[in-house]
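Writing this down once: the sequence line spells out the residues, with the fold written below as integer tokens. I am pasting one below:
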Amino acid sequence: ESDTASEISFQFNRHKKTPSIGSHSSDMASVSSVSGSVLSVYSGDFGSMDAQGTVEFALDYDEKNREFQVHVSQCKDLAVVDDKKGRSDPYVKTYLLPDKARMGKRKTSVKKRTVNPIYNEVLRYKIEKMVLLIQKLNLSVWHNDPLGRNSFLGEIEIDLASWDWSNRKLNWYPLKSRSLSAVNGVDHRGVMSLSIKYVPPGSLGKWPKNPPSGEVHIWVKDVKDLLQLRPSGVDSFVKCYVLPDTSKKSYQKTRVIKRDTNPVFNHTIVYDGFHTEDLKDACVELTVWDHEKLTNHFLGGIRLGLGTGLSYGISVDWMDSTQEEVAFWQEMMLAANEWIEGLLPLRSL
């Protein structure tokens, strides 16, 4: 049915409800080690203060070096994080949205014990001007905590398509509360066409037991309207993981389709080792990437699961499926041995 297919065995640590540090098995995904890796990815954005104060900065684009420059000058009247000591240790962080992961974050140094920090630093992005003009700049101010529990102090978001590039002067901007697009990266990234099927243990024959364990089949058909990051087009491929396992055991990918914003993959992946109860705690993550020699750029993805925020009794950030993704997964759970077809929008993860 498909051009290419992958099959991989997958087993969960089903019985572990609470993490035990260092527990690991060569045959099972350790829930404790996975939850620890998730914490390392999502650490840093814990506390939140009422936004107040202002930030002074200027924007410029260096045509010769193809470089976007954010001149961060200073902040005034920031919120006080430590009331007892009357202090904040602020720094400024920037992202280019919609895709924070692709361009990465830039940040200034930390200025200690002040609500009026002076930076005079330049944050730089190597990026083509035409790509820059479809981005938004998210500039936020944070209190730096030694334990990593940083506090949000305010932000500003600028649509670079409508920015006046003749304006290179430093200007003051009021810091605002957190915006929805900065948190969720809501935007149009394309649509993935796929089918999924669950085959319960023993459902295809009584003796010998066929299959011996349950199987999840994922048929990645095509993607339409991908983001085009450069004039030559997009060289895309799809990665697949079954969370909580982020090891090579669950990692699969399609071939690369070159110079096409509407790639047809027609690739089927089969994961065995699934028991029916695992479907409540597992999540299939499919992500689309633009392939380049030095690095791959994230374009968008989907997460198929129940979106409960929990996996085997542990709170995890990645169990965050949208209503559409949850409905798709539930339909598969209710219709054993049947292909369920779906058309799901890609999103930031």
Observations:
- The chain has a mean pLDDT of 80.
- The chain has two domains: 48-174, 190-346.
